[in-house]
Amino acid sequence: MRWIGFLSLVALSECLVTVPLTKIKSMRESLRERDLLRDHLRQYAHSQANKPLRQPRVTVQPLRNYLDMYYVGTISIGTPPQKFKVIFDTGSADLWVPSIYCSSPACVTHKTFKPLRSSTFQDTNRPIRLLYGSGSMTGLLGYDDVRIRNLVCKSQAFGLSTTESGIALEFAAFDGILGLAYPTIALNDTTPVFDSLWKQGLVPENLFAFYLSSNKRNSSVVMFGGVDHSYYRGELQWVPVSEQEFWQVTVDSISMNGTVVACPDGCQAVVDTGTSLVIGPLSPVLNILKNINAYNTSTGEYVVSCDDVQSLPDIVFTINNVTYPVPASAYIRREQTDICFSNLDMDTSGRSRPWVLGDVFLRLYFTVFDRANNRIGLAPVVA
Description:
Helix content: 10-25%
Largest sheet: 9 strands, mixed
Shape: globular
CATH topology of the largest domain: Cathepsin D, subunit A, domain 1
Structural class: alpha+beta
Strand content: 35-45%
CATH superfamily of the largest domain: Acid Proteases
Number of domains: 2
């Protein structure tokens, strides 16, 4: 077959007819002859100057669901990049990861940042301390480049832990935490990651959004700089932020079967991607547990009969005159064949704290955190 192709090419070449070519004047030469070149070049330059710049694209960061307890994504810090698994947490505002200076058990079992291996690291020797509901860290403040997918945030402030306390941190499936709350609760004189992304012109819109799925694979996402409408149904319902520290909103009431069971005169709630449960004050939560016939176990947890779950009513949060039902399939979890645990937790501190709408709520509602307008958008997720 090769030879046939070769012979055909030779035969064809013997039949070719040579045609003389005439040089065609270029557009530039033609315009110059007509004394129009200068005006044309000016017009072209003006059109280019007024052409809109290419806008940054929405960045989608996959998150992995760990046992419905938390959602973890990968970032990197330094040059060359050092990778870490972090919780993208709207309930805090600081970024920190373990460091080689830490000898706590939690640091031994996780990746640690190595400052000397990064050519862009800047040390401050400033001590820091951060407290969380499930543990705490102390460490030092540093600056380095932080990467989230295609975004590179230059000279970002972050903590390098020197101690980490709490069993939850020791056995966690994440290394550190990336806070996405307002800068008012961040470490003094530091800029949180998302604020840096916006100030450095890396995102097209001053907002981010979460889609949290019960799927254990990487179907959950946090998106920076825009909203993907394919993740939710209907229209986003906007709720003003009532206090610009956490992502805090006003709840009109909480009801079951049409009867108000909590927040009869309204209350405050924090929308928190870093909390797995729905948490409320002691008395109102006990009232809800009473309504579903939950009983206390020796471990302090509340359980219901799994046979009753399908008949339990929704817990309905009314927020800015819009109702957000949370069905029993969400606020009850089955961990054994015949025992089902409550996904409601109580704040027993005795202080007047807001409710916390954690992942139990957020798995039902796509959530947009709009810093430009200080509001939260909610819409039912696409199943």
